[in-house]
């Protein structure tokens, strides 16, 4: 078995790309699709990588903790009962377990993420 390097760049050159989309019953508008490069998957439910989505709006519910850093694009995240927050390149934020709301991609959005289940 080959040892994994202890330094792992977070970029699309170091992971297989997975394609997906939100479940159809969560889509509010558009036809959003996802591309994900999961670079790290560690014991205990830790994930890190890059995620990209095309325009559309869907409902989200978080059971996990996630740190996000927007690399490019523009999205609007709205927590149930809260204000709409526009995020764009350079913005970083945390979504905590129990978060419910919507994610709307205005311009194709790419983010770096770290998820703790």
UniProtKB/TrEMBL annotation:
Residues 1-29 are annotated as: Disordered. Residues 41-113 form the (S)-ureidoglycine aminohydrolase cupin domain. InterPro entries: RmlC-like_jellyroll (IPR014710), RmlC_Cupin_sf (IPR011051), UGlyAH_Cupin_dom (IPR008579). This is Cupin. The lineage of its organism: Bacteria, Pseudomonadati, Pseudomonadota, Alphaproteobacteria, Hyphomicrobiales.
């Amino acid at each position: 078995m080959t040892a994994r390097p202890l330094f792992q760049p977070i970029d699309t050159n170091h992971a297989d790309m997975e394609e997906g989309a939100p479940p159809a019953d969560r889509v509010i508008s558009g036809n959003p699709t996802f591309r994900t490069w999961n670079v790290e998957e560690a014991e205990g439910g830790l994930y890190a990588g890059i995620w990209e989505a095309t325009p559309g709006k869907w409902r989200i519910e978080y059971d996990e903790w996630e740190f996000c850093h927007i690399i490019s694009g523009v999205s609007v995240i709205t927590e149930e009962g809260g204000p709409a927050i526009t995020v764009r390149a350079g913005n970083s934020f945390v979504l905590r377990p129990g978060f419910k709301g919507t994610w709307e991609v205005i311009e194709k959005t790419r983010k770096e993420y770290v998820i703790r289940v």
